[in-house]
Amino acid sequence: MSVPVSQMWTVATYVLRQRLARRPRYPLVLMLEPLFRCNLACAGCGKIQYPAQILRKHLSVEKCLQAVEECGAPMVSIPGGEPLMYPDIDRLVAELVKRKKYVYLCTNAILLKEKLDLFTPSKYLSFSVHMDGLREEHDEAVCRDGVYDEAVPAIQEALARGFRVTTNTTLFDGASPLRVREFFDEMMRLGVEGMMVSPGYSYSKAPDQEHFLRRSRTNQLFSEILSKPKRHWRFNQSPLFLRFLMGKQDYECTPWGNPTYNMFGWQRPCYLLQDGYAETFKELMETTPWENYGRKSGNEKCQDCMVHCGFEPTAVNHTFNSARGFAETVMVTLTGKL
Amino acid sequence: MSLQGWVPDIGPYLTLEEVIEHAFDYRGNVTVVRRDGTEMVGYLFNRDAQGPEPFVQLFDEAGNGPIRVRYAEIATVRFTGKDTAEGNSWKAWIERKEREKAQPVPAPGA
Lengths: 338, 110
Description:
CATH superfamily of chain A: Aldolase class I
Oligomer: heterodimer
CATH topology of chain A: TIM Barrel
Shape of chain B: elongated
Shape of chain A: globular
Number of strands of chain B: 5
Order of helices and strands of chain A: HEHHEHEHEHHEHEHHEEEHHH
CATH architecture of chain A: Alpha-Beta Barrel
Largest sheet of chain B: 5 strands, antiparallel
Number of domains of chain B: 1
CATH topology of chain B: SH3 type barrels
Strand order of the largest sheet of chain A: 6-5-4-3-2-1-7-8-9
Number of helices of chain A: 13
Radius of gyration of chain B: 20 Å
Strand order of the largest sheet of chain B: 4-3-2-1-5
CATH class of chain A: Alpha Beta
Largest sheet of chain A: 9 strands, mixed
Strand content of chain A: 5-15%
Structural class of chain B: alpha+beta
Helix content of chain B: 10-25%
């Protein structure tokens, strides 16, 4: 695993503080969407399907920081839209780093080279580059030829300048385990700090419903990909979450673990489902009927979901809330065997 | 199937609450017709049907908002804006790619 020790320590102490305060629900990662505008139109993404007046809008830095303070999570992920199209992205990142938040700036890297001068390398800042596979698979997933060949040199440039760079990969039905393994090799060869993987999810507002993974197929696919992980592969995520994807752990969703804030407000109940919005984080946490979500609830929208934003918080809580979870994490980390 | 262009006929078989749920799921602008006859065009991004005073929230066509309108004020909602999700599927992209690949390569000098 490749999460830096300082980041792990921050998360561990944060989780322990929440436990000591006896908070039953707490956020781990704020998903902060300052805009929905994007320079790609990926079929798997429902985030950009809005009328023009919505795509033109964005949150102010002040609104973003207010959300960060309200939420209190130690990590902030900035997806979107394409955050590098946000006009104040440099100021937003600088303010977050000043607050010692671990920032994952999720980007397709098309603008990365051009915008790198806006940022200063920091242990708190990681560019999380969207890479859905090798050239052919990635360009197909993002519905535009040539994007892979733009992203790779941008990653190399960012690494050369001393930035933390990770990748985030969404796998859809039809993914070839062999090609995914080759892709992992390639990302490691590029020198990225770690990789994040997650299955796609068939949420109702995504225009492509056919290629998202069902639960058993997810287990099968990830088992084939990860059953003999190579020693040099590094993942920037909980090893227990990877075991969950392989069907070796049974977890329930923690929908409040990665709360989402955007121009509409605090999204209920999670990053993927859009069942409405709350005006404040407190309102989100206190008035969302959480019992209606997750697999056990019987909610049909949740039955096939195994996406990181709901289950990685569960895995992290398992690690830091139980001796067994901690021991399992240590064992997997030391042996490299998932 | 897209709801673009739908003019719902609210009555015993179709309630306002149902129409608002469809509008909430719709990825385009809608026209909210108030009981006083005035109309507002915008993107309906939120609704609360459970509270003591159910309401919807919109950003209007100029992006102003959020604007809150109570259910009690609404006569109907028309699906007047372009459905921005329509035709943007992965399937459509693959079909386009296949069509491009099937195009005959022009002969040199042609």
